Amino acid sequence: MTDENPLTEGPAAEDPSTADTFEKRRLAQETKNERQVWYFLAYFLFGIHFIAFIMIYAVRHAK
To answer: For 18-31, how does the pLDDT look when each residue is reduced to its tens digit (9 = 90+)?
Structure first.
């Protein structure tokens, strides 16, 4: 049994355009994931502030 690494051996390793395509797809996915993290953070912070303003309103208007 040989230790073959599929990422460094075979036809994909010999063809630079395939490696470039893989790298471009990986970078595109990484960019998409990073954008999703920023959106999640923005929604989370907005939600926290929204709830805080509702609580402030409730406390100030409580009788």
So the answer is: 888 999 999 999 99
